[in-house]
Specification:
By secondary structure, the protein is of the alpha+beta class. The chain contains four helices and seven strands, in the order E-E-H-H-E-E-E-E-H-E-H. It has one domain. Helices cover 19% and strands 16% of the residues. This is Nitrous oxide reductase accessory protein NosL.
Length: 182
Amino acid sequence: MLPRSAPHAVDFVPPAEDVCIVPPARVAPAMPWNPDSGLPIHAARPVPAEVRCPVCGMYPARHPQWAAQIIFADGAAHFFDSPVGLFIFLEDTERYDPERKADTVAALYVTDFAAGGWIPAREARFVIDSAARGPMRVANLPAFAGVEAAAAFARANGGEVIGFADITPERIAALRAVNHAD
């Protein structure tokens, strides 16, 4: 029988406001734009299977109904496992990617929860405080292309339909609190 090895310890204590525990050394770099993709530089693009959310470290491709993305002026993109991750990233861009600045964001996209496909985040309707659980199995912000689909979802699952501008730092803080803030 082999001797039992000592447990490994990481000398890292995340700030209380962290969503997930991803040590700082694990930075998820932005994916550069590929001019050979045939897509315009600021167009939404498919989520690569290997990319990780820069906020929590999850794999956005595993949660296509919830995925979101940010595209920067140079065409580089970050992908998120949910709209909550996107909004947390926007609040403190340089914390999650020291090479990027919030004022270089060119486009924001979220997945239409009902129909699939990418929609501009600033045009989306979100349902807050619904029974829907996101990739982390806690409250999230399902996104919809139209108010009718969002309202139908809210009637069936509870919650309130809001727009992009209604997603305040206070609302993100409340969502952050249920997304691994313990």
